[in-house]
């Protein structure tokens, strides 16, 4: 037992102070703005897009970027800029829906495992370990291979694959919070279990969950793009950055813009989420800020 | 832990395969379907039996190394998997070498020179490594080489035995692509883990003994920092396997990943089932090896 | 008697935003040869960073912004430890100046055996030493620090030993090369009282036989009374009082020292209430240009809120940073 | 009516030690081994000992923050160990716990108002204004002002946090409180402030208290009765003054002798107690202290001495020092 240790204050920012902190961090701001940009692109796609995404124009095949076609056209003469704008919609939609599936189910599993422990925990974690034992994209591919390719199946597949990370993160943080003195304090004061679970454990275990959700969004978008690239995700003529890039490979020397623009947007989006995730982690857990 | 997890994986795969809409037989026979042919195939595939029996038949075959036969060619799946695995493994090993050669020195350097110019560069590079999807990097790389140098990566695969140099030429680009995306996260982990260890008391104590920096860093700091890094590397094998699926497709390398994709596109389910089971098994085994590796690095952990 | 180490005007700061916030402010101290100088103060008073700066081990991002030291090195002559090139610094660390730390449980590398870590202390300075010589030396050191089963201990890993044993090993490592100065940073804080007593006894014993000077850093006045000949009391980043140990305990001059002693001794009295110094220690960055103790001081006058008092001699060898003097403050 | 508010009888708390491949239970740590003591109303009873002696576990077991393995804890005539979880929860209104580390024991996401009103909401149904009254009167007792109600723990210093933590424990006006090392995380100059506050509140609110500490000076100041613990057992128990003046158990004597004196002139040549505390998962046979005791006999090695009343105090020793 030590007489006196230097205790480090863990200042956990709450609500708006977190946003403020993120905004003050140049990285956080960059990530935030990047995501905002993609989000606006997706939301206002019908206004921003200049052409119908599926409109084939044989006269304008493989046109280079110009005032008419900002990002050029593809082998069917479709406007790449418009397809990218709508692609943002697809990417974000798949990302958000699949992460919501994963986060929702994973959260419940993790909370149950962390709070109840014993048999409940071992059963849930066994199940999670099995899913986790699959290399993630492999499992996603297997699921769409079986269910067939469609946007909904893509979301389901990516969602299922991401459940275990959430369950593990939430379980770990619930257990960590459960072991803290302030939870022991809450018990000693005589609070009901429900109050302890929802007023004390839940808010304090949300930080790693939030970080995980941000990072999972980036990986979900990446997985969707990869699956679409392989032809097992979003199916043509729906615009997906992954499939656009895949189609572009045949024409890449004649029309490098077909490769470059979708690639840049994929990278930009994933990068933004990763940067925000990093900044969020720094803000929520000063211990990890190195 | 190994056996129950593997059992769980096999059951999961088996159950997922049951979800295939419509039925397999009509998938195979297509318009040629007649009641006789259908009955023959159902018997051949064993799907006339109850689910539990089907599973046991399948798994007992798997244990003996019999993964079934391809619907299309009728060839045994397992030998094909083994042969293709050797190609994928070569690619994976090369990728790891590329990743580690980049990641460890830069990660350590960036931790030591925290917040310096070098550190910033390394961190941005690492972030890019994590954020740029393998297929995007590969495509951009091919485009760049073609436009600037007029170089096209070879399309026809040559094995290591036939012509090692040619083989290396084929493998090097995909290894760089796979390796650099791995390098990103290894670099980040190396940096943060090194920083964590560097502020520990015992590092101060080692320096207080008069240790040269090289010994402080390599013998004490890095060996301790490698404990979380090893976990990451184990988990990355999974990402690497996913990566090979895409990269093999792009660079036309006849590895396991390509085999799996062929299976998926042709709806050749024994191939899909077998490949996924095989890859998951390898993944689980590698992670077990990682756990054993811990006991060598960290004397505090014992597996009795 | 000559001084082994002279510290003058040491100032250590940490960057906060674009500014440098001082954590230690113009500290001057002398460590005489073969004696124990105690530094006592509460958390954040700057006592630990003083010690770590001497071996150029300040934690990131702290840095020395002012001051010099003069250390009497037998290898390099008089040197300034703060600016010594790293190669010479390494010759001094572990050979001429050794250090022991607060947490014995974390001060040894968890993945190497005690033997490997003890050998290092020799290898870094005497690379030609044979395995046999090193083994003999380590065993004799372990015997010196009263480790019950030296051979068995050498092949153990740190997690297999108790805090008390590890601290003994840390002391053995520190004294391996007969250093001229031993810096002990809260060496017993993490230990139980009975073990603390063992370690303090051991340190006193070894100091006598080794003739090393000791810089004892602690928050515990009791530890000071047990070990030191001379004491410096730190408060909010600077020295408020400095005196020979008897003088300090029997005739404390600074209201802070007095308060501390009074509150500790009132614990053993029969009174119903303890003497308590009111208020809190001002943290670094909020040190205004006046006496840093003024807000908590019962004697504080107008003057104390205007100027920073200087450290002045109030009796022979007794320095005090206070506007009041002996006669006026006698309480 | 019972003379004693709290009567702890033969309390035992064991923790399972898991090991091996299947994480089976391979042994038990005997954290608390047959501890009995009694506490009168308004009395302060101290448990003192080194780390691992089980003092903290005893405190937590009394309040069922840890479920004891065996024994009885009779509080106000009712055996706490027999109550259901919900009954225990309700009982906490009268029995509270003060934690060691104020930096960790306050929920960082709750402001002072939430921290102080929460226990009241859990045990009483009060109107908003009654709540406010009680919180504000408690606030006054710990020397806080109303404008500090909206602040969060990280905006306070360690000493202030411990005040909040004490207020949170005492706001339901309990009759009994266990204080687990309430000052050991604090700086020396702050410790006295908090101890004064505790004594003052204890008297004002007619509290009975079990005070747990490793700091012998603090124990002498605050308690009237003391039990010296070693490896899960009480070695010596009685009036604090008498035990401090004349310790009779060899361990108590060694422990008291190990406190550094504040007078460098009195730096006497005393013999430090040798050896270390044994592992509580594998305690020695007989008297737990015998491996470190210079008075140990064959009997001590073989049979554990029981705590028996010997004159003015209770002792667990075959060869106690003379009074």
Walk me through the structure.
The complex is a heterotetramer of chains A (290), B (304), C (331) and D (323). Chain A has 290 residues and is mainly α. Chain A contains eleven helices and no strands. In chain A, α2 packs across α11 and α10 runs antiparallel to α11. Chain B has 304 residues and is an all-alpha fold. Chain B contains twelve helices and no strands. In chain B, α6 crosses α8. The C terminus of chain C is likely disordered. Chain C has eleven helices and twelve strands. In chain C, β1 and β2 form a beta hairpin. Chain C is α/β, with parallel strands linked by helices. By secondary structure, chain D is α/β, with parallel strands linked by helices. Chain D is 30% helix and 25% strand. Chain D is globular and about 65 Å long. Chains in contact: A-B, A-C, A-D, B-C, C-D.
Give a concise summary.
The complex is a heterotetramer of chains A (290), B (304), C (331) and D (323). Chain A contains eleven helices and no strands. With 290 residues, chain A is mainly alpha-helical.
Summing up helix and strand content along with how strands pair, one would put the structural category of chain A as mainly alpha
Mean pLDDT of chain C: 89
Structurally, the number of domains of chain A stands at 1
Helicity of chain C, in percent? 25-40%
Low-confidence stretches of chain A: 1-13
Count the beta strands of chain C: 12
Biggest β-sheet of chain A, characterized?
A: none
> How many E-type strands of chain A?
0
Return the CATH topology of chain A.
MetI-like fold
Task: Please give the structural blueprint.
The complex is a heterotetramer of chains A (290), B (304), C (331) and D (323).
Chain B: H1 2-18, H2 24-29, H3 35-45, H4 51-63, H5 77-112, H6 117-131, H7 134-149, H8 164-198, H9 201-208, H10 213-250, H11 256-265, H12 269-297
Chain C: E1 3-16, E2 19-32, E3 36-40, H1 47-54, E4 63-73, E5 77-79, H2 86-92, E6 97-100, H3 114-123, H4 131-144, H5 150-154, H6 163-175, E7 181-185, H7 193-210, E8 213-218, H8 221-227, E9 230-235, E10 238-244, H9 245-250, H10 255-267, E11 311-315, E12 318-321, H11 326-329
Parallel strand pairs in C: 3-8, 3-9, 6-7, 7-8
Antiparallel strand pairs in C: 1-2, 1-4, 4-5, 9-10, 10-12, 11-12
Helix pairs in contact in C: 3-6, 4-6, 6-7
Chain D: E1 4-19, E2 24-40, E3 44-48, H1 55-62, E4 70-75, E5 78-79, H2 85-91, E6 95-98, H3 112-123, H4 128-141, H5 158-170, E7 176-180, H6 188-204, E8 208-213, H7 216-222, E9 225-230, E10 233-239, H8 240-245, H9 250-257, H10 298-302, E11 308-310, E12 313-315
Parallel strand pairs in D: 3-8, 3-9, 6-7, 7-8
Antiparallel strand pairs in D: 1-2, 1-4, 4-5, 9-10, 10-12, 11-12
């Amino acid at each position: 037992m030590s007489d006196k240790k230097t205790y480090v204050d863990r200042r956990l920012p709450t609500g708006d102070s977190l946003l403020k902190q993120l905004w003050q961090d140049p990285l956080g701001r960059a990530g935030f703005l990047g995501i905002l940009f993609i989000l606006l692109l997706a939301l206002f796609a019908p206004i921003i897009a200049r052409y119908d995404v599926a409109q084939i124009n044989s006269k304008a095949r493989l046109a280079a970027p110009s005032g008419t076609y900002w990002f050029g056209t593809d082998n069917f003469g479709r406007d790449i800029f418009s397809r990218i704008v709508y692609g943002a919609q697809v990417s974000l939609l798949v990302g958000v829906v699949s992460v919501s599936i994963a986060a929702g189910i994973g959260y419940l599993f993790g909370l149950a495992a962390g709070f109840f422990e014993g048999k409940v925990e071992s059963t849930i974690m066994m199940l999670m370990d099995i899913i986790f034992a699959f290399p993630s994209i492999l499992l996603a591919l297997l699921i769409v291979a079986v269910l067939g390719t469609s946007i909904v199946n893509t979301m389901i597949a990516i969602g299922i694959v991401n459940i275990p990370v959430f369950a593990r993160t939430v379980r770990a943080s619930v257990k960590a919070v459960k072991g803290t003195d302030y939870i022991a304090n809450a018990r000693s004061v005589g609070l009901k279990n429900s109050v302890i679970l929802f007023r004390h454990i839940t808010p304090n275990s949300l930080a790693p969950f939030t970080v995980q959700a941000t990072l999972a969004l980036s990986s979900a978008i990446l997985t969707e793009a990869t699956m679409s690239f392989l032809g097992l995700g979003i199916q043509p003529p729906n615009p997906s950055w992954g499939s656009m890039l895949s189609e572009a490979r045949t024409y890449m020397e004649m029309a490098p813009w077909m490769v470059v623009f979708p690639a840049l947007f994929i990278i930009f989006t994933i990068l933004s989420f990763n940067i925000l995730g990093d900044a969020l982690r720094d803000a929520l857990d000063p211990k990890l800020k190195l | 832990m190994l056996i129950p997890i593997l059992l769980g994986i096999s059951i999961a795969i088996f159950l997922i395969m049951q979800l295939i809409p419509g039925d397999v037989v009509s998938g195979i026979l297509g318009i040629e379907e007649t009641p006789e042919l259908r009955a023959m195939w159902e018997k051949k595939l064993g799907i006339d039996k109850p689910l539990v029996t089907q599973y046991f038949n399948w798994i007992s075959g798997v244990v003996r190394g019999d993964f079934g036969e391809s619907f299309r060619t009728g060839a045994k799946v397992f030998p094909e998997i083994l042969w293709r695995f050797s190609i994928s493994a070569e690619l994976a090993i090369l990728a790891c070498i590329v990743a580690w050669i980049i990641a460890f020195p830069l990660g350590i350097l960036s931790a030591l020179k925290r917040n310096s110019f070098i550190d910033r560069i390394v961190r941005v590079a690492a972030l890019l490594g994590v954020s740029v999807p393998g297929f995007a990097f590969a495509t951009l790389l091919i485009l760049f080489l073609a436009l600037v140098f007029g170089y096209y990566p070879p399309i026809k695969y040559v094995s290591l035995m036939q012509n090692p140099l040619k083989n290396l030429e084929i493998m090097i680009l995909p290894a760089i692509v796979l390796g650099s995306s791995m390098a990103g996260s290894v670099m980040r982990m190396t940096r943060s883990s090194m920083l964590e260890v560097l502020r520990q008391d015992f590092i101060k104590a080692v320096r207080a003994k008069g240790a040269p920096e090289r010994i402080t860093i390599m013998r004490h700091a890095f060996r301790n920092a490698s404990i979380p890094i090893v976990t990451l590397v184990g988990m990355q094998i999974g990402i690497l396997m996913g990566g090979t699926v895409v990269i093999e497709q792009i660079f036309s390398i006849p590895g396991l990943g390509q085999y799996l994709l062929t299976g998926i596109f042709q709806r050749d389910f024994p191939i899909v089932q077998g490949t996924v089971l095989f890859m998951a098994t390898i993944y689980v085994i590698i992670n077990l090896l990682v756990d054993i590796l811990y006991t060598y690095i960290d004397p505090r952990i014992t597996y009795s | 008697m000559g001084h082994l180490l002279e510290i003058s005007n040491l100032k250590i700061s940490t960057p906060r935003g674009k500014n440098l916030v001082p954590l230690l402010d113009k500290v001057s101290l002398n460590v005489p040869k073969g004696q124990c100088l105690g530094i006592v103060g509460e958390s954040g008073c700057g006592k630990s960073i003083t010690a770590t700066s001497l071996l150029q081990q300040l934690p990131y991002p702290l840095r020395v912004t002012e001051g010099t030291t003069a250390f009497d090195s037998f290898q390099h002559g008089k040197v300034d430890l703060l600016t010594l090139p790293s190669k010479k610094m390494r010759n001094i660390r572990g050979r001429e100046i050794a250090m022991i730390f607060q947490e014995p449980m974390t001060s040894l590398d968890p993945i190497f055996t005690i033997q490997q870590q003890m050998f290092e202390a020799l290898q870094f300075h005497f690379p030609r030493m044979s395995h046999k010589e090193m083994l003999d030396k380590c065993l004799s050191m372990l015997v010196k620090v009263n480790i019950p089963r030296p051979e068995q201990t050498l092949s153990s890993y740190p997690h297999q030993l108790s805090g008390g044993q590890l601290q003994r090993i840390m002391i053995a490592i520190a004294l391996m090369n007969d250093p001229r100065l031993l810096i002990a940073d809260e060496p017993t804080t993490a230990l139980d009282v009975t073990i603390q007593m063992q370690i303090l006894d051991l340190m006193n014993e070894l100091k006598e036989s080794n003739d090393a000077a000791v810089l004892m850093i602690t928050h515990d006045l009791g530890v000071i009374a047990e070990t030191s000949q001379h004491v410096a009391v730190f408060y909010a980043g600077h020295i408020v009082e400095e005196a020979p140990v008897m003088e300090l305990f029997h005739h404390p001059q600074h209201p802070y020292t007095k308060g501390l002693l009074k509150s500790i001794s009132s614990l053993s009295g029969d009174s119903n209430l303890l003497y308590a110094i009111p208020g809190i220690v001002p943290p670094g960055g909020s040190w205004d240009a006046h006496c840093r103790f003024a807000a908590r001081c019962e004697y504080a006058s107008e003057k104390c809120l205007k100027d920073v008092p200087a450290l002045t001699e109030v009796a022979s060898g007794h320095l005090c940073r206070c506007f009041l003097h002996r006669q006026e403050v006698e309480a | 009516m019972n003379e004693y508010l709290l009567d702890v009888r033969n309390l035992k708390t064991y923790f399972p030690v898991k090991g091996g491949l299947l994480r089976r239970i391979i042994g038990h740590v005997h954290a608390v081994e047959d501890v009995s003591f009694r506490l009168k109303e308004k009395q302060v009873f101290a448990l003192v000992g080194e780390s691992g002696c089980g003092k903290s576990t005893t405190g937590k077991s009394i309040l069922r923050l840890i479920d004891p393995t065996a024994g009885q804890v009779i509080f106000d005539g009712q055996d706490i160990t027999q109550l259901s979880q919900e009954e225990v929860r309700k009982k906490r209104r009268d029995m509270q716990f003060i934690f060691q580390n104020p930096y960790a024991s306050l929920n960082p996401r709750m402001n002072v108002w939430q921290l102080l009103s929460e226990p009241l909401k859990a045990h009483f149904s009060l109107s908003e204004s009654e709540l406010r009254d009680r919180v504000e009167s408690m606030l006054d007792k710990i020397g806080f002002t109303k404008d500090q109600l909206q602040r969060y723990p990280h905006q306070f210093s360690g000493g202030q946090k411990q005040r909040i933590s004490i207020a949170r424990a005492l706001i339901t006006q309990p009759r009994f409180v266990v204080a687990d090392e309430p000052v050991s995380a604090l700086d020396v100059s702050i410790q006295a402030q908090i101890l004064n506050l505790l004594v003052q509140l204890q008297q004002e609110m007619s509290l009975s208290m079990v005070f747990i500490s490793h700091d012998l000076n603090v124990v002498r100041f605050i308690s009237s009765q003391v039990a010296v613990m070693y490896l899960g057992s009480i070695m010596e128990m009685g009036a604090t003054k008498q035990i401090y003046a004349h310790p009779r158990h060899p361990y108590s004597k060694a422990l008291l002798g190990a406190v550094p004196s504040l007078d460098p002139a009195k730096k006497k040549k005393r013999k430090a107690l040798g050896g270390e505390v044994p592992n509580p998962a594998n305690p020695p046979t007989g008297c737990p202290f015998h491996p470190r005791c210079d008075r140990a006999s064959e009997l001590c090695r073989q049979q554990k001495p029981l705590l028996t009343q010997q004159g003015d105090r209770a002792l667990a020793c075959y060869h106690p020092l003379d009074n």
